[in-house]
Amino acid sequence: MTYHPKSEFIATIMARGFLADCTDLEELDARFHKETVTGYIGFDLTATSLHIGNLVQIMLLRWMQKTGHRPITLMGGGTTKVGDPSGKDEMRKIISVEQINANADGIRQVFSRYIAYGDGPTDSPLVNNAEWLDELKYIEFLRDIGKHFTINRLLAFESVKSRLDREQALSFIEFNYMLLQAYDFLELYRRHGCILQMGGSDQWGNIVSGVDLIRRVEATEAFGLTTPLVTRADGKKMGKSAEGAVWLNDDMMASYEFWQWWRNVPDADVGKFLKMFTELPVDECERLGALGGSEINDAKVLLANEVTTLCRGADAAAAAEATAREVFEKGGVGDDLPTLELTGEDVGDGISITQLIVRSGLVKSGKEAKRLIADHGARMDDEPVTDAGLMIDRAALASPIKLSAGKKRHALVKMAD
Question: Can you give the pTM of this predicted structure?
Answer without folding.
Answer: 0.77
